[in-house]
Amino acid sequence: SQTIHQWPATLVQPVGSPLSLECTVEGTSNPNLYWYRQAAGRGLQLLFYSVGIGQISSEVPQNLSASRPQDRQFILSSKKLLLSDSGFYLCAWSIDRGGNQPQHFGDGTRLSIL
Amino acid sequence: QKEVEQNSGPLSVPEGAIASLNCTYSDRGSQSFFWYRQYSGKSPELIMSIYSNGDKEDGRFTAQLNKASQYVSLLIRDSQPSDSATYLCAVGGANFGNEKLTFGTGTRLTIIP
Predict the structure, then answer these.
(1) Could you tell me the pLDDT band of residue A65, with boundaries at 50, 70 and 90?
(2) Percent helix / strand / coil, chain A, rounded to 5
(3) Which residues contact A97 (CB under 8 A, 6 or more apart)?
(4) Mean pLDDT on A62-76
(5) A78 at B interface, C-beta within 8 A
(6) Residue of chain B whose alpha carbon sits nearest to that of A90
(7) Where are the alpha helices (DSSP H) in A1-114?
(8) Could you give the maximum distance between any two Cα atoms of chain A, in Å?
(9) Mean pLDDT across chain A, nearest whole number?
């Protein structure tokens, strides 16, 4: 069966520091991968998605970037964090079957910026 | 702009009753519809998928889809306190190869013992 791993679970970072969040998927090949952010009491905001190695689509212009160096690895990064980057970051995957597939989420990383 | 609308709640339902959660969507060509449950502080968990008009039942959960009315609902029978959570509706796009889902902001459900 497929599993998704996301770490760390919680992170406290000062303003202006860099960020790297990692997500890996096991048990499937060539998954579609997604990064979402959920602000407290708010809905899911799609940040980036990827349909293959090196292929990144950005949904919202911001202080973040994403990379997919391997088939089942998705990384979210920032060079300098802002206070507004605080939130619950979620990685998700779906089967690559031409769309309309459910997404499955990792446990998330709760990021607090001080 | 594709939109998915949900009543934010909170929706309070007595234990043992039927909870009814509703969702409307704007893209008439949407082809896939999902319900996720999100407990406080946790990540969303897929509980139902529906692709065709009508009802789909899975245990205590029933998803209902009416594409003509652009409406999808989730019924939870015999509601339990463990059903207290935020329920997210998600809709898949109309175009082949569209890999994204549009999520509603969720309805917070509280089951009262």
Answers:
(1) very high
(2) 5, 55, 40
(3) none
(4) 95
(5) no
(6) B43
(7) none
(8) 41
(9) 93
**Chain B, 66-85: which have a CB under 8 Å from a chain A CB?**
none
User: What is the predicted pLDDT for the residue at B18?
Assistant: 98
pLDDT at B93: 76
Q: Output the DSSP codes for B27-54.
A: -TT--EEEEEEE-TTS--EEEEEE-SSE
Q: Is B111 on the interface with A (CB under 8 A)?
A: no
Mean pLDDT of B68-72: 96
Q: What percent of chain B has pLDDT over 90?
A: 82
CA-wise closest residue to A98 among B111, B73, B95, B54: B95
Nearest to B103 among A43, A49, A104 (CB): A43
Residue with tokens 């009814």: B20
Q: A69 to chain B nearest CA, in Å?
A: 20
* Cβ proximity of B24 and B80 under 8 Å: no
Q: A43 or A66, which is more confident? A: A66
Q: Is B104 in the A-facing interface, judged by CB distances under 8 Å?
A: yes
